[in-house]
Design brief:
about 290 residues, alpha+beta, Ribosomal Protein S5, domain 2, Alpha-Beta Plaits, 7-stranded mixed beta sheet, 9 helices, binds cytidine-5'-monophosphate, 2 domains
């Protein structure tokens, strides 16, 4: 018995660090958006154990893997005596600020819940997801959401309509833990979260784009960023910003032609360019 799922990448329309918990984790204020770039995951029931297979040879297939962590926690929390073979076709670049690992973990939790008929509620899945990573709760829900605290407080926001996303992934990867450590050492200028909250409440996508910010842009150096944003602006983007702790820079566009033209030009700066659209879920079952 098996199930196939799509695990969607996310971008941070907004990301502010608002504080630090006693365990070193940071409290966040974010607006997150799922996009159509996805990993494809097939889960196959097995008698015992967790086996990982992946199309990308750079992904570690050990206990540090987010899919492994998600599956282990699923069996631990439900008490189900079972196993799974997890086969992943990797399309979302890693260490990119696109939550590839978190999306895969969310798909594993969603899929195992169905495959084993465990009946875990959305809340229970979210609790387990948060133990795997801060972005997993959002990836379980997906769409357009306001996300707070460690990533576990989630409120849906009016979806981004009729827009197109261009993602540009410079070659190097960024360590999220290092980016947070660097942020701790920096005097950060913060975006206007009250206005962003108001924009989320009124559902004005124009205002969401207007007040968007990402504090990691102040601490993570991405040499190509200025040129990427310039090209996006020349093609009438609604917003252009780094996602997560980078290095991916994304633009949202109101017109597909503009997005396509920008993507063509951007390919000359970076090989990793993806033209996609916002989607309304984090995980879907095929
Ligand atoms: O949860 P995730 O796997 O994305 O976190 C990677 C690292 O980023 C954590 O080990 C931690 O150092 C840092 N982090 C943090 N505060 C958060 C999320 C992540 O300090 N809210």
């Amino acid at each position: 018995m098996s199930i196939a799922l799509k695990a969607y990448a996310k971008v941070n329309i907004h990301l502010d660090i608002t504080g630090r918990f006693s365990d070193g984790y940071h409290s966040l204020f974010m607006v997150m958006q799922s996009v159509g770039l996805y990993d494809r995951i097939i889960l196959e029931k097995a008698g015992k154990g967790i086996t990982l297979l992946c199309s990308d040879k750079n992904i570690p297939l050990d206990e540090s893997n987010t899919e492994y962590k998600a599956a282990r926690l699923f069996f631990e929390k439900t008490g189900i005596q079972g196993g799974v073979i997890i086969e992943t076709e990797k399309n979302i670049p890693q260490q990119a600020g696109l939550a590839g690992g978190s999306a895969d973990a969310a798909a594993v939790l969603t899929g195992l819940n169905i495959l084993y008929g465990a009946g875990l509620s959305e809340h229970q899945l979210r609790e387990i997801g948060l133990q795997v990573g801060s972005d997993v709760p959002f990836c379980l829900k997906g769409g357009t959401c306001l996300v707070q605290s460690r990533g576990g407080i989630i409120a849906p926001v009016k979806p981004a309509e009729n827009s197109f996303a261009v993602l540009v992934k410079p070659e190097r990867g960024v360590s999220t833990a290092q980016a947070y450590a660097d942020a701790d050492e920096t005097y950060l200028y913060h975006p206007d979260n009250s206005r962003m909250l108001e924009a989320c409440e009124t559902g004005s996508f124009e205002d969401i784009c207007k007040y968007a910010g990402n504090v990691f842009e102040q601490v993570v150096e991405v040499p190509e960023r200025v040129d990427i944003k310039k090209i996006m602006r020349e093609h009438n983007c609604l917003m252009a910003q780094m996602t997560g702790s980078g290095p991916t820079v994304f633009g949202l566009f109101g017109s597909k032609d503009d997005a396509q033209a920008a993507a063509e030009k951007l390919k000359k700066i970076c090989p990793g360019v993806f033209l996609t659209e916002p989607v309304d879920c984090g995980v879907s079952v095929e």
